[in-house]
Amino acid sequence: MKVSLRVGMRADDPVNPLDGVLRDVKAMGYDGVELMLNTQYSLGALEALIKLVDEIDSPWFGVYEHCYWPRGTMQPHEEIALVGKRIACLHSSALNVQVDYGKMIGALREIGYDHYWVFEVPWEQAQASIDGYRYLMSRY
Question: What is the predicted pLDDT for the residue at 21?
Fold first, then answer.
């Protein structure tokens, strides 16, 4: 079971707020916790999230990477390279002709990513997306 929490914290708070959260989640019998930090709540851009992950410095706290191209300013392979080994999970939507998947998968290999890759697509696009991603995996 996945537990979703929103954690608010100040940058100057000397107490790691995750210590108690992770202890409580484990005591309840859960394997992990998903913490959502959103840039719209003044936490800043991807660089600020990376800084936060580095400061918390826990193997249980990483970046749920959702490449925002073409809505964002960086291509997926650039975001992946920036986040690096901090990626805890990768999230993608439907295949996009504007994404260079060769570079994207190359960036994942370069950082040694071998974890979950979540695909979120409408049901009507599910089979085409499965087939497309399977093709990409066989190609790259």
Answer: 66
